[in-house]
# Entry
Amino acid sequence: MSSVLLLNLAWQISTLALVALGLAIVFGKLRIMNMAHGEFVMIGAYAPVITSMLGLPGWLQLPVCLATVGFVAFVLERTIIRHLYGRMFDSLLATWGIAILLREIVELVFGRGYQSVSPPLTGTFSVLGADYPAYRIAVIIGIVLGFIGLYLWNTRSKVATQIKAMVGNPELAEAIGIDTARLSAGAFVFGCCTAGVAGLILAPTVRIEPMMGLDYLIRSFFALVVGGLGSLEGLGIGAGIIAGTQTFLGAVASQTYGYLAVLTLSILFLWLKPNGVRSSSH
Amino acid sequence: MAYQIGLYLIYGIAAQGIGFLWGKTGVLPLGQSLFFGIAAYVTAITLKVDGNLFLNLVLAAMVLALIAGVAFVLATLVFRGRNESGPYFSLITLALVMIAEQVAGTATSLTGGFNGMSGFNSLGDLDPFGNFYYVIVAATVAVSLLLFILNRLPINLIAKAVLDNEPRMQLLGFPTHMIKGAAFAFSAMIAAMAGGLFASHQGIVTPTSTGFALSAEMVILTAVGGRFHVLGPLIGAVIVGWASAELRGSFPYWELLMALVFILVVLKAPGGIAELLEAAFRRVWPKTPTPLTPSVVAPPTRSGTRPAPLRFEDVQLKIGVVRILNGVSFETPATGIVSVIGPNGAGKTSALNTITGNLNVTGGRIMLGEVRIDSRPPHNALGNGIGRKLQVPSVFFSLSVSENLAIAMMAGRLRMADLFRTTPLQWRSRSLSRVLNNPSVPLKNELTDPVQHLPQGHRQFLEYAMTVAAEPSVLLLDEPCAGLSPDETALMTELVRVYQIETAGLVIIIEHDMSIVEAISDKVLVLHLGQVLAFDDYKKIRDNPDVQAVYAGGTK
# Structure
């Protein structure tokens, strides 16, 4: 295996883990099957386009991304999502409608055509004897550090404990003074914002267009199916298996085969191991 | 104009298939254009190669059968071992359609790539702008008629019951994953038929015919038109199609409007246009209550096996790190009433769950006579002669009392051919009639009431009646007297006793009330901390110092 393939694997796995993180929070914790998850990735990817359209300096891309995605997520949570807690199937339908809505709005504003942006870091970096884009290496390191931070936060912070309490028993959590409405809204917006950041990170490496989100939704969902809901390790393992399979087969065969393999894998998991590799709640 | 309407009707037919699957069983297919598109491509290829009508029709039938088979296997695999539909299946269908679109766009030699396939005549060389329209109308009428007929058959009630309460259906012996698989296969076939018509009608097939956008559109047509009514999806397809043709050009926010309408329908009017129309119609023409049809004597049940002792052999049950059953061993007599008692958390309900297969044991085995019964899916329990009433009454809340009883009467009795006759809906066995005719049992006067309006006690009796309808030789009852008044409790214990004498079978009953335990038990099983503390007749149990220690608050 060449070192470029290895680095590509690391890139695909880490970015998929970041994309899937938000879905894991919203689906795993809030039981909202967010079919519009990919659209938040898409909006995040448009953040650099918005920034340059407004004539703002490049370092404002992240704030612009968080503001846009956070605002959209907050408005949707207050108007639609909050009626759907505990109604998983309706949440799937309504967010499916939201996904179409967001795609259409973005298409109206930016048009159907592809957009592209350039990475903030250019140049290459020599790792394991291969020249690899410095931007990607920075992103991989950043995501790994981010997940370590999240893991520590998840095991120690009070908010994480409150979320666990809410997931375990919403009524009891409310009875002991946890504001579940605010907590759910916060978790939803946070989940969508991680998707937006993932979109921002991916923006320089992909074609930005209104339909780009679907692919991310499906792959993150499969990562959760394989890895199991409820733990960060499961998320990592799931992202590893899905992105690994797809990247590897995509390199040696074709993208279509990679896709087929991932789908087959997910069906096998649903059939034989319905709770994924790691299903224990952490 | 007829040409455009023909196209809307084709989409409407496919949407009717979605409506059947989604409205009845609750399974939402997000990739229906997979079947639509495959059939369209196959039609295009065949028509290009050979225009012989007979040959084409034979081939079409074969393709439909193949598609149905593949759809059935896929859905059955995914639904196996689950008792809900969840989002998993929908997402898999979505992924399938995305792959299909990719393949259709890249396999140029087979599909013509992005430009698609064209240059073939329509089926039977009819004019797509003229006579072929009548073929489409005929197909629409045929599919609608078929769906209306299905509405009157047991299949309809079974599908609704699956949507309402899948675990209960499994305990009544219905393989719900196969029922959902069959419904999916049926809807796939309808979509494929529409796809074949589409290719013939349009004269060109491109990757969008098997694409994600078309799938999404079909779901929207179904939802907006109304998924619970046979004609709803057709209405949706024609109205949305016509409005879209009128407005799309002049009104740039058309797609946006459709998305908003869809969200509104999901949140506020799940029945769509069809339900609004029906409500308006009913205001003018109120529905006359359907009289109860006279009952027909049911065929004999197949779940009454020969009485046999139930034997636990060192049964272990571990969930995560929690050990729930810790080496449980006992053997009941082949006939009689066994009460299971024990403090909360002793593992009583879990023990029943291992018998029905709702939980798989992690060690040891459970034998009924010579048959090993542990760790098999719950829908096979009734086949072993095991019926079960759950702790919290589990009935079909959206159905009426008589519909609940009709489902229960089919349990253990229905054969494949009965699915296509209406008489199973009127089945009534003698023993069920006896229960219902007992003047103290409340159900007889509320047969047409929806179950959700029934008080708790009546639900207990309903679930009991449903559980014994199949006349299982092993009856598991989980606190059947919970929430009952003293009179009702006396009635329930009497019913259980009579049932045991009539069938000479085995009844296992979890009960906390010691006076009931004393009154009905031939034997008493005491569970404590996942182990058998004692297993004897009532007197000996009462005098057992270990049991006294546990019940007097001592620790053991």
